[in-house]
């Protein structure tokens, strides 16, 4: 009997751990405390994010999916079959899996910081697609997008859905897109970008009535406790999310309910009642601003599809 095909997994997590601990400690000790949103994704955080995509208020996932369905033929014709599909921040890989019949990739490379969750997701994906050549790359791509040579030579299509680009400041986003362009080696970038819309809709999307986004944000403290050996008490903090119109971004924070001191190996900080830890930005773009950003990153040709309400944009960007 032929051996069952297994996804390959390249795991850089251990090599990145010390740098991430330093980054966490520096953020907690900064005058305005902050923690990068990439730390939201431990295994539970990844599951909570998958749940967020199902709640009524969180429109981005279903709106982006609708764009893929409505424009499947044009998207497939723009990209062409047989690519190496590189999914940046693949999560549960559900989006890429739905695109397989449209894009017909030759191989699939899923990149994610949440390595254990990624490995489980890829096992399931391989079971559903035994014919597909699948590689997982467990790494943090926020400071450097470094794809291994062994992922193959066919045209690389970098897939960056869900408006994850919005977690970067516009300057960081430009730097990341330049790296994505270089990493695509003349292939292209398929990117989903959330658009500016009414404050009520935006605020609700990041503070759903079921409290799933609140749990997702608060679980960050558990992840930090594990990674840094800290002693945050989740119940000492509350979830805050709002649209900052001046900066065109959703901000998420964790606010101290009362004064409490947190310690970790080599550090401590007292959070006074009402003090906040800034945990996520999600920048919202206009189609024009997103297009300019892609052009500034060196992509000369862009094609854009949006939904009927103009809430979300999908771009195909090439040289
Ligand atoms: C907002 S979720 C999007 C998941 C999925 N792509 C989607 O669109 O629904 C962001 C994903 O990117 C991953 N991620 C966040 N920061 C990352 C980083 N710096 N390096 C690698 N993966 C990261 C998270 O683990 C998570 O799976």
Describe what this molecule looks like in 3D.
With 319 residues, the protein is α/β, with parallel strands linked by helices. It has two domains: 8-15 and 45-198 and 285-318, Rossmann fold (3-Layer(aba) Sandwich), CATH 3.40.50.150; 199-283, no CATH class. It has ten helices and 13 strands. Strands 1-4-3-2-5-6-13-12 form an eight-stranded mixed β-sheet, with helices on both faces. A hairpin with a 2-residue loop joins β9 and β10 (267-271). The chain is globular, with a radius of gyration of 20 Å. It starts with 7 loop residues before the first strand and ends with a strand. Bound molecules: S-adenosylmethionine. S-adenosylmethionine (SAM) binds at residues 38, 41, 46, 49, 53, 61, 89-91, 95, 111-114, 140-142, 161-162, 164. Residues 38, 41, 46, 49, 53, 61, 89-91, 95, 111-114, 140-142, 161-162, 164 line the site of S-adenosylmethionine.
């Amino acid at each position: 009997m032929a051996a069952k095909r297994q996804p390959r997994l390249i795991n850089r997590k251990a090599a990145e751990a010390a740098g991430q601990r330093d980054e966490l400690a520096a953020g907690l000790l900064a005058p305005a405390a902050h923690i990068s949103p990439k730390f939201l994704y431990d295994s539970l955080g990844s599951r909570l994010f998958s749940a967020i995509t199902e709640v009524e208020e969180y429109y981005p996932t279903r709106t982006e999916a609708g764009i893929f369905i409505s424009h499947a033929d044009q998207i497939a014709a723009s990209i062409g079959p047989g690519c190496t599909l590189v999914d940046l921040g693949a999560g549960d890989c559900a989006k890429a899996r739905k695109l397989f019949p449209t894009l017909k990739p030759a191989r699939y490379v899923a990149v994610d910081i949440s390595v254990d969750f990624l490995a489980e997701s890829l096992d399931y994906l391989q079971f559903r697609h035994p014919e597909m050549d699948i590689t997982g790359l467990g790494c943090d791509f926020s400071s450097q997008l470094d794809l291994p040579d062994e992922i193959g030579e066919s045209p690389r299509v970098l897939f960056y859905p869900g408006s994850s680009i919005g977690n970067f400041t516009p300057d960081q986003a430009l730097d990341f897109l330049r790296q994505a362009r270089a990493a695509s080696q003349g292939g292209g970038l398929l990117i989903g970008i959330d658009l500016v819309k009414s404050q009520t809709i935006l605020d609700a999307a990041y503070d759903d009535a079921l409290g799933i986004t609140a749990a997702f944000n608060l679980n960050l403290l558990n992840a930090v406790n594990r990674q840094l050996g800290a002693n945050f008490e989740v119940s000492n903090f509350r979830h805050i999310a709002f649209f900052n119109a001046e900066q065109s971004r959703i901000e998420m924070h964790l606010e101290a309910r009362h004064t409490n001191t947190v310690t970790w190996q080599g550090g401590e900080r007292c959070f006074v009642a009402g003090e906040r830890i800034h945990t996520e930005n999600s920048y919202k773009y206009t189609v024009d601003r997103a297009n300019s950003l892609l052009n500034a990153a060196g992509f000369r040709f862009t094609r854009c599809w949006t939904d009927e309400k103009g809430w979300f944009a999908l771009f195909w960007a090439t040289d």
